[in-house]
Specification:
It comes from Amycolatopsis samaneae. By secondary structure, the protein is mainly α. It has helices at 7-16, 20-33, 38-50, 54-67, 72-84, 88-101, 106-118, 122-135, 140-152, 156-169, 174-186, 190-203, 208-220, 224-237, 242-254, 258-271, 276-288, 292-303, 308-319. It has a domain at 259-320.
């Protein structure tokens, strides 16, 4: 006869099924029986982290590591939690230690690369993802990440070649198409870039970053109506995307639709009141609508501030 499942085993099943509350309850019950079990302590921390309770999670990870300092998964989880709480450098050190303890763990190297890229430490991030690719050469994800950091360092041709390798492994991996499209656009191959970005959008239609890049590429090709359609869909997916609202407003202005532009700009400024680009174009939209006094007030106030858009507003005020 099989022995009944333990609280830990039941907690893991709940956890795998997405029941974080049930998993937490069972992990806590398991701790009552085994208060110094580092596996339970780590699992409880992970469930809490997934619930957004990162500070609590750190406490449980640290307790697990007090009992077993060489447990790589707890080091990895602690590093990610610390980084998410704002201590990115502390997170990097914990995740780096996890790679030392588990040198065959692709996830640890991938997470290390992400944190290093976040800090702008490009050579170290490249080294981390290079190792991840070596460990799992059949997975397109680390190759795509490696291409991302190589592109960030300006080596666009090399990055594009690596993305083609990733797509040879999985031609339906949307992030590789999206990154390839962005690189092609930067290199000036707008048509091919639009093609790659469209492929990425088809594979991952709710990816707003891909739609934003595609809209920019379409605008560069003069396909403003298509760009406006992409931005409209992006805003349906993410109504708080202030930058996309400003981009859409610019297209409305170019098409002689200042009222529609003003609607988008007012909503953008509700989300990001200090967006100088939105303020500048709001002044332009008001002017196009014949509301000259309001337009001048908006532009003068912007001109009295600092930054690129303040300079442009000052030029417009002077020219008026």
């Amino acid at each position: 006869m099989n022995a009944p499942a333990t609280e830990l085993e039941l907690g893991v099943l709940r956890h795998l099924n997405g029941d974080l509350t049930g998993a937490e309850e069972l992990y806590r019950a398991a701790l009552e029986r085994e208060p110094e079990n580092p596996v339970v302590l780590n699992n409880l921390g992970f469930a809490l982290a997934q619930s957004g309770r990162l500070a609590e999670a750190v406490t449980w990870y640290e307790r697990a590591l007090t009992l077993d300092a060489d447990r790589p998964v707890a080091r990895l989880n602690l590093g990610n939690a610390r980084a998410a709480l704002g201590d990115v450098d502390g997170g990097i050190e914990e995740v780096r230690r996890a790679t030392e303890l588990a040198p065959d763990d692709v996830t640890a190297f991938d997470n290390l690369g992400q944190l290093l890229l976040l800090r702008g430490r490009l050579p170290e991030a490249e080294a981390a993802w290079t190792e991840a690719v070596r460990l799992d050469p059949a997975d397109p994800r680390p190759r795509t990440a490696l291409a991302t950091v190589i592109a960030a360092g300006g080596r666009l041709g090399e990055a594009a070649a690596i993305l083609h390798e990733a797509l040879a492994l999985d031609e339906e991996y949307a992030p590789a198409w999206a990154q390839l499209g962005a690189i092609l656009v930067v290199r000036g191959d707008l048509a091919s870039g639009c093609g790659a970005l469209t492929r990425a959008k088809t594979l991952s239609p709710e990816d707003t970053a891909t739609r934003a890049h595609l809209a920019v590429a379409l605008m560069s090709l003069g396909r403003n109506d298509d760009a406006a359609a992409e931005l409209t869909e992006l805003l349906r997916l993410d109504p708080a995307a202030a930058g996309a609202r400003v981009d859409l407003a610019v297209l409305h202005l170019a098409a002689g639709r200042p009222a529609a532009a003003l609607t988008q700009l007012d909503r953008a400024l509700e989300i990001a009141p200090d967006d100088g680009r939105a303020v500048l174009h709001r002044g332009l939209a008001l002017g196009e609508l014949g509301r000259t006094g309001e337009a001048e007030d908006v532009l003068r106030e912007l001109a009295a501030s600092e930054g690129e858009y303040a300079t442009r507003a000052a030029e417009l005020v002077k020219a008026a």
